UniProtKB/TrEMBL annotation:
<dbReference type="GO" id="GO:0004497">
    <property type="term" value="F:monooxygenase activity"/>
</dbReference>
<keyword id="KW-0560">Oxidoreductase</keyword>
<keyword id="KW-0503">Monooxygenase</keyword>
<protein>
    <recommendedName>
        <fullName>FAD-binding domain-containing protein</fullName>
    </recommendedName>
</protein>
<keyword id="KW-0285">Flavoprotein</keyword>
<dbReference type="GO" id="GO:0071949">
    <property type="term" value="F:FAD binding"/>
</dbReference>
<keyword id="KW-0274">FAD</keyword>
<feature type="domain" description="FAD-binding">
    <location>
        <begin position="332"/>
        <end position="392"/>
    </location>
</feature>
<dbReference type="InterPro" id="IPR002938">
    <property type="entry name" value="FAD-bd"/>
</dbReference>
<feature type="region of interest" description="Disordered">
    <location>
        <begin position="93"/>
        <end position="126"/>
    </location>
</feature>
<dbReference type="InterPro" id="IPR036188">
    <property type="entry name" value="FAD/NAD-bd_sf"/>
</dbReference>
<dbReference type="Pfam" id="PF01494">
    <property type="entry name" value="FAD_binding_3"/>
</dbReference>
<feature type="signal peptide">
    <location>
        <begin position="1"/>
        <end position="18"/>
    </location>
</feature>
<keyword id="KW-0732">Signal</keyword>
<feature type="compositionally biased region" description="Basic and acidic residues">
    <location>
        <begin position="105"/>
        <end position="120"/>
    </location>
</feature>
């Protein structure tokens, strides 16, 4: 009997990989630490690049991708408009930098030297398909990817370690309650930046740094956004506080629809009580309203009318800017998504790169019919190329826009 592939974490990369395995009829099991997909706040809206959309289409196939693309929001235009948040004056009106694709045939020889030359932002359009800016809420994307995976998923299972059978032919996940999974042919670690499995399998080489940028995610009814019109907008005040939002004309008149916004700033601006990121609701909402109380009246409804229970704090982290590190390959264990390459929100590269992981690894597994020797090594070699470039691009943009500076020798890790 074929032993299943064990996937730890039910984030975007893990769920899309599971959908790939389901479609390829390869046995798998999915383990998630939370009690459900909606257990905690799901974060801000994600912009999908051509690379991200291509990855989703490759995994889902034409019919299911058409359904997915239908629920995505599409915003006209190919750039964004930047405002002085206090005066309401337009500061810029142009396209926003975005990472370009990297050929899967590129070699990782001398990778770190190449990446160091690629940190400068690239002036490309925000738009992807149909000359539209395509986006979807993270929670909505997770729910769509989860369809059909219910019977293969166990919740309340936090992965903390792994063990190998004495013969080396199987691996098992160890959970925080002391229990173990069934034997599997492989383990795919997709639990994000605090993945214990990723830390162990990489020998501690996978590191994630605190950029010292802090954020607030909020949502408000569409009526609060009407004065802005359609487009992607960014507001900046003299203190260095930024807010970005995406207003879609198609959904503007839907009274049940909410649009989201993301606020980022230095810790001295966004002071999170006790650095506790589990805080949601009124405390977060009140801080956002206070921080924007002096902003132009066109922008204040986004905060004055915000949905209180959707307000949440978040910390901006970044993987090693010089590139995804090389570690001793384990033939049966590998890493996907943020666990391998977390990024700042600059450029909107993180989720799209995670989706590329799912498509690449899923295709390799499909071609092999499941586990085979050398598969994880081939995946990691290819992932390091585009993953390292994406991290470098995201870090370069964040350095320019928000003053982020990471010294890999002295900066704090998370």
């Amino acid at each position: 009997m074929t032993k299943p592939i064990l996937i730890s974490g039910a984030g975007l990369a893990s769920l899309l990989l599971a959908r790939s395995l389901l479609r390829s009829k390869i046995p798998f099991r999915l383990f998630e630490r939370d009690a459900s997909l909606s257990f905690r706040g799901q974060g801000y809206r994600l912009r999908l690049s051509n690379e991200g959309l291509d990855a989703v289409e490759q995994v889902l196939g034409p019919e299911d991708f058409a359904k997915f693309y239908e629920i995505c929001g599409k915003t006209g235009g190919s750039g964004f408009k930047g405002f002085d948040a206090v005066t309401g004056e337009v500061l810029e009106e142009k396209g926003q930098p975005q990472a370009q694709s990297t050929s899967s045939n590129d070699k990782d020889t001398g990778l770190k030297n190449e990446i160091q030359d690629k940190t400068a932002p690239k002036a490309n359009s925000l738009s992807s398909r149909d000359s539209k800016i395509v986006g979807i809420a993270r929670g909505e994307m997770r729910r769509f990817f989860f369809e059909g995976l219910e019977q293969y998923t166990q919740f309340n299972k936090k992965a903390v370690d792994y063990v190998e059978t004495p013969d080396g032919d199987s691996v098992k996940i160890v959970f925080s309650d002391g229990s173990e999974s069934e034997e599997g042919s492989m383990i795919i670690a997709g639990e994000g930046i605090k993945s214990k499995i990723a830390q162990k399998v990489s020998g501690g080489k996978l590191k994630h740094y605190d950029t010292r940028i802090r954020g607030i995610h909020g949502q408000a009814p569409t009526s609060a956004f009407k004065p802005l019109g359609e487009g992607v907008f960014r507001f900046k005040d003299p203190r260095g506080l930024f807010v970005i939002t995406n207003v879609r004309a198609k959904d503007m008149d839907d009274p049940d629809m909410q649009f989201g916004w993301t606020m980022i700033g230095q810790p001295e601006l966004i002071k999170i009580p006790n650095d506790d990121y589990t805080i949601v609701g009124k405390t977060v909402s009140d801080l956002a309203k206070n921080l924007t109380s002096g902003w132009d009246e066109k922008f204040r409804p986004l905060f004055a009318e915000m949905v209180e229970n959707e307000a949440a704090f978040w910390k901006v982290t970044c993987s090693t800017p010089s590139g995804v590190p090389i570690w001793d390959n384990h033939p049966r264990i590998t890493v996907i998504g943020d666990a391998a390459h977390s990024m700042t929100p600059a450029g909107g590269l993180g989720a799209n790169t995670a989706l590329r992981d799912s498509a690449l690894l899923g295709q390799l597994l499909k071609d092999a019919g499941g586990y085979k020797e050398g598969l994880t090594e081939e995946y990691e070699e290819k992932m390091r190329v585009y993953g390292s470039e994406a991290v470098a691009q995201s870090y370069g943009m964040a350095s320019k826009e928000f003053g982020v500076e990471i010294d890999e020798k002295t900066s704090s890790t998370v």
